[in-house]
Amino acid sequence: MVAFGKKLKETQIQEWQGYYINYKLMKKKVKQYVQQIEVSEQSREYVLKDFSRVLDKQIEKIVLFLLEQQGKLASTLSMLGQEHDVLIQQQDGSKLSQLQQSYVEVGRELLRLLVFVEMNAIGVRKILKKFDKRCEHKFTNYYVKTRANHPYSQLRQIFKHLGISAVVGTISRNLVDLQDNRASYISIYDQPALPLPDPIIEAINHAVDRLTNSTDFLHYLGKHALILPQELPTPSKDHAAAERYHLMSLLLNLANAFLYMVNTYIIVPTADDYSLSLGAAATVCGAVIGSMAVAQVFSSVYFSAWSNKSYMKPLVFSSIVLLIGNTLYALAYDFNSIYILLIGRLFCGLGSARAVNRRYISDCVPLHLRMKASAGFVSASALGMACGPAVACLLQANFKFMKITFNQDTLPGWIMALAWFLYLLCLWISFREPPKEEMVNVLPQKANSGQIENGLVQNSISQPLLSSAEEKQQDEDEDQDCDNSEESAEEIQKPVTSIVSAYKLLTPSVKVQLLIYFMLKYAMEILLAESSVVTTYYFIWSTSNVAIFLACLGLTVLPVNILVGSYLSNMFEERQVLLASEILVCLGIVLSFQVIIPYSVPQYVFSALITFVAAEVLEGVNLNLLSRVMSSRLSKGTYNGGLLSTEAGTLARVFADSTITLAGYWGMSRLLNVTLLPSLFICIFSIIATCFTYNSLY
């Protein structure tokens, strides 16, 4: 892999070279600005104005060329449209075939233009980030705020590429119209799922999706898994992933995610009753539930590291540990020991292999299937969350077999132990360990200015131009001169090796998104973990009632994601949905407080539903934004973005469960309000933090 400056030079289309962002010049400018600021702090105002002017000129150059090319494409399509109308009347099959090929050629030109826009958009983002870092100034916030929403905005043209969608629609409609060289009209508007006749349309759609970050339900769920894509994927890596792909192994990974979520929530309805039966207070259920999260804080790290070497071994180890943990959880009743109960849950947390599940999808699933696999991961987790309490509702038996007690408290442990044993057998029989990724030494090649390396454009689209040895040497010298402050290409691409290094890569926007993730997980854990205690105290609900309530909450996950992924995220900007969801979570928390006596079932259920649904919406949008603003170096390795978000969420659960246990010392009458106060404060703080970083989420 090479640094972006070299990647930009290698992928430039020869005849368009003068219209790309001059990334080398911008880096030199940043270096000069740093020196000026070091000499005199008074130069800062001049630097900001000058950098704004230079960047405006660069963006203007890109946008004017983009509009010029769009005009050429529109003119060509207009002429082809007139020819199309004539040929339909003549019913000439050979000429219709030629016309179809002409539309394909226009599609190829459009694809080149889309790649041009994408490379420039990445360049603008990177130079803004570089300026903020080197000059220690939040320039991006100012620049986006003043340019993005201006009626004459040119920045919007790059990041929203207004007008290109109309060209895409025209090409798609006409190619469908000419399908099979027939003049019969098949409307893509009436049949949006109609298969398109040429691969160029699929390539164009992929390019458009990458530019717009537009999303449907599948892509929304996929980003929900926070499996970070690399910024510039290459065909060679995707080919390697295709060779490592095995459907049954993927399904077993998804089954692992499902079973683990069932294991997490199956005990929630009965945890307080189990604690009471062992002589502890009902609020100790917080410690029982939270002990699993405590262990998961550590297990996520070693499983993430282990997945660098193997996938099957950590999954086997996870299954064995979970089998032991659930067995201990079930046996705690007959041993009459709260400590065995807690140890059992700790073992369950030590068996959390979600980091392996994410890593397998990221490394071993081809790019064209990765989003579906990611969506499957999220769906499996959501289904497990709903099934856990639902299964607990069915386990109402009470009998002994060989002096071992089977009742509503112990059966969740026995059922999950059996499930993990069966899973272990399937894993041993059907899982295929992917071959280790070979390290290939890639020799530096001469830059092919017309070759697009991201697999979207064929080599024949543009002609390569080999620069002379003198020109190449001169370019390399110039690159070296202006890249002294740059990270080396190898350093840029290699994964981080410690949690401290990962933390240093977190920008303020990423930190705020992780804070939001912590907040929503904290609020959800408070709601779910104390539900059995609160409903028993205030409403005298049975275990079955609590289980049904939790299952109903869990079943809202997928419908809510469908609503957000298919509609809201296409109607509003993600940052708008993010802020609105935070406010709704805050509203749900406020409504949950016991102010009126007696505390009513409608108030509790309504406020819980608002909190949970808003938190689910918030989680999806939050992880979508996190996948965009997080450094590409966190897309792989042990300390990846998925691990960081998992750790943030797990720590939130630990603190929430600890809060429930500690709040028990104030008495059951104060438990609800005491546990809700931290949620409210964290939520308000996250809303304020979001407002401060709002413009950086553009």
List the helices and strands and how they pair.
Blueprint: H1 4-11, H2 23-39, H3 43-90, H4 93-135, H5 139-147, H6 155-160, H7 164-177, H8 199-212, H9 217-224, H10 235-244, H11 247-265, H12 271-277, H13 285-306, H14 312-335, H15 338-350, H16 354-364, H17 367-394, E1 399-401, E2 404-406, H18 411-430, H19 469-482, H20 489-493, H21 499-504, H22 508-529, H23 531-539, H24 543-555, H25 557-571, H26 574-592, H27 601-629, H28 641-663, H29 668-692
Antiparallel strand pairs: 1-2
Helix pairs in contact: 2-3, 2-4, 3-4, 3-7, 4-7, 4-8, 7-8, 9-17, 9-25, 9-27, 11-16, 11-17, 11-18, 12-13, 13-15, 13-16, 13-28, 14-15, 14-18, 16-17, 17-24, 22-27, 22-28, 22-29, 25-27, 26-27, 26-29, 28-29
General description of the model:
The chain has 698 residues and is mostly helical. It folds into two domains: 3-227, no CATH class; 241-433 and 505-693, Growth Hormone, Chain: A (Up-down Bundle), CATH 1.20.1250. It is 72% helix and 1% strand. The protein is built from 29 helices and two strands. It has a two-stranded antiparallel sheet with strand order 1-2. A hairpin with a 2-residue loop joins strand 1 (399-401) and strand 2. Helix 9 (217-224) crosses helix 17, helix 13 runs parallel beside helix 15 (338-350) and helix 22 (508-529) packs antiparallel against helix 27 (601-629). The longest helix is centred in the N-terminal third of the chain and has 48 residues, at 43-90. The protein is globular. The chain starts with a helix and ends in a 6-residue tail after the last helix. Mean pLDDT is 79; it is low at 180-197 and 438-492.
